[in-house]
Amino acid sequence: MSIGVLALQGGVREHASAFADLGEPVTEVRRPDDLDGLTGLVVPGGESTTLSLLLGSAGLAGPLAEALDAGLPAFGTCAGMILLATTVLDGRDDQLNFGVIDLTIRRNGYGRQVASFEGTVDVPVLGDEPLPAVFIRAPVVEAAGPGVEVLATLPGEGGAPDRPVVCRQGTVLVASFHPELTADRRLQRLFVEMMKEERR
Ligand code: GLN
Q1: What is the chain's Cα-based Rg?
Q2: Which residue ranges make up each domain of the chain?
Q3: Can you give the pTM of this predicted structure?
Q4: Which CATH class is domain 3-199?
Q5: What is the DSSP letter of 57?
Q6: 180 is catalytic
Q7: Rounded CA gap, 174 and 9, in Å?
């Protein structure tokens, strides 16, 4: 298994140590060559507009789009989820998104008071124990296409519909929070399992 972490911005070290906890060392991806031979890629949080610019200046935008279109498994958290989605609302006109998971996402879509919060989410596929979740200026999933499995939601406020916070489509897994900042490794383990299934 050869897991890469996009290392342009965000919690690269935290993601790396989360996978190291599972016995899966990662490599840092900064240049197009670093994509060669990967079995999966982690796309960390940060700021999707900045990540988008950095992907361009690193020459990674095209090669990464090709790798994702060819089926490279990906795990996107927060801004990483925004980059992997099909439709981004409240983004910059020129911001990139790779469109490999059929989600409509609104950047910074949680109301001001709850823009950043810590809590737990129920993720039934990971077992009964709720998963700790740290949200930081998190994106809101406003719509999920028919091919998307919604693995966890948060209750909508004031009668609003529940909001998906963990989703999967094929070998793409996304979370609107930061699983690398807490000690629970079940989501990372799920991604490892997804990559193993893919290789069978
Ligand atoms: N608000 C950020 C964005 O739009 C995402 C925040 C995060 O990754 N913690 O890209």
Answers
A1: 15
A2: 3-199
A3: 0.96
A4: alpha beta
A5: H
A6: yes
A7: 17
